[in-house]
Amino acid sequence: MNNFTFYSPTLFAFGDGEEKNTGALVRRFGGTRVLLVYGGGSVKRNGAYDTVTASLTDAGIPFTELGGVQANPRSGKVYEGIETVRREGCDFLLALGGGSVIDTAKAIGFGALYDGDFWDFFTGKARIESTLPVGVVLTIAAAGSEGSDSCVITLEEGNLKWGCPKTDVIRPKFAVLDPRLTCSLPAYQTASGAVDMMAHICERYFSNTPDVALTDRLCEALLKTIVDAASKAIADPGDYAARADLMWAGMLAHNNSCGVGRDQDWASHQIEHELSAFYDCAHGAGLAVVMPAWMEYVLSHDPMRFARFAVNVFGCEMDFARPERTAREGVARLRDFFRALGMPTTFAEIGARAEDIPAMAAHRAEKPGGFPFGNFVKIGPEEMQAILRLAAER
């Protein structure tokens, strides 16, 4: 196990009806005037908006609204939020929604305290050293941004989907997690969220670091839980126990509890960012296409690691004479599981085109330090294109 520093200061209020306490939590963490950030109409249909705004009013906290955040969140909404915070004198960001809403609030938080362009933090021109505090009321179990040290935004000029440098400064002060708020989600969003969680774990699980038995087992337990709970939640959207497992698993998948002390990969995410930048597909949907293809491409680097994944997550029988055979069965089981959830697993299903593959690699190269990426196996432009061709051939 490698040396590590782990700091995760977020307070989590978990359970049925906890969103009623949002106003008190904002007060607890020093908020006196809130910018409420949310997406579309779902938070109004499921009652979350009414409960949260009533809680803020009861706590005597004035708020200004910023709605309309889209999936694959755009820079335009961040700029709008920064302007609103400064104009209205807001001192606290409250994200009501999923990963896109939370990431937008995080970017507004550190952008509002900076005299330059918030995108400077994404290019490395500036370093995040301070932020307005962010609180979360989670309505989608998926991205794990409610407990993470990162955010991803798409710069509309150039269509650049990049993550900011990871820093504990932007971890939310609190996150309210009520599994009931996810019961009204469409099956596609539930499934997409499950894929995103599994990808966050796999980016940590497929590591070259030796002697990481504890975090290996944590990863495997979470993966098995997600496989079980996602199927139950889609079969019965009102299954509170399954929704609760998914909501907490999504947080644990990405607050880095499973990643400490080990090198992490993140190649699948970097490749997928180009798919969703080009085709505006759901992040989880893009990962369902990319991740099995990445696995096929790098499997020979460490067949026993993939065989362990196959056995301990999907219950495959170990072929000790031919571990690569077990490893490939595990990848096939993962792809079959994604299909069973109703997720796309082919280029065609997300509207992607093989002829765009060179352009995607070139677009990735625009990012400072864009190549190589990944730690399990280093991925350059040729390797990225080979992985995308594998995905396109499915």
Task: Output the keywords.
394 residues, alpha/beta
Order of helices and strands: EHEHHEHEHHEEEEHHHHHHHHH
- Biggest pleated sheet: 6 strands, parallel
State the shape: globular
Low-confidence stretches are: none
What is the average per-residue confidence, as pLDDT, rounded to a whole number? 97
How much of the sequence lies in strands comes to 5-15%
Computed structural class: alpha/beta
Main β-sheet, spatial strand arrangement: 1-8-5-4-2-3
- End-to-end Cα distance, whole Å, is 37 Å
Helical element count? Answer: 15
- How many strands in all? 8
> For the CA atoms, what is the radius of gyration?
20 Å
The helix fraction, in percent, is 40-55%
Helices and strands, with pairings:
Blueprint: E1 11-14, H1 22-28, E2 34-38, H2 42-45, H3 48-58, E3 63-66, H4 75-88, E4 92-97, H5 99-111, H6 120-123, E5 134-138, E6 152-155, E7 160-163, E8 174-177, H7 187-205, H8 213-235, H9 240-254, H10 267-279, H11 283-298, H12 303-314, H13 323-340, H14 357-364, H15 381-393
Parallel strand pairs: 1-8, 2-3, 2-4, 4-5, 5-8
Antiparallel strand pairs: 6-7
Could you walk me through the main structural features you see in this protein, from its secondary elements to its overall organization?
The chain is α/β, with parallel strands linked by helices and 394 residues long. Helix 10 (267-279) crosses helix 11, helix 10 (267-279) crosses helix 14 and helix 12 (303-314) packs across helix 13 (323-340). The mean pLDDT is 97. The relative contact order is 0.11. The strands form two sheets. The chain has a six-stranded parallel sheet with strand order 1-8-5-4-2-3, with helices on both faces. The protein has helices at 22-28, 42-45, 48-58, 75-88, 99-111, 120-123, 187-205, 213-235, 240-254, 267-279, 283-298, 303-314, 323-340, 357-364, 381-393, and strands at 11-14, 34-38, 63-66, 92-97, 134-138, 152-155, 160-163, 174-177.
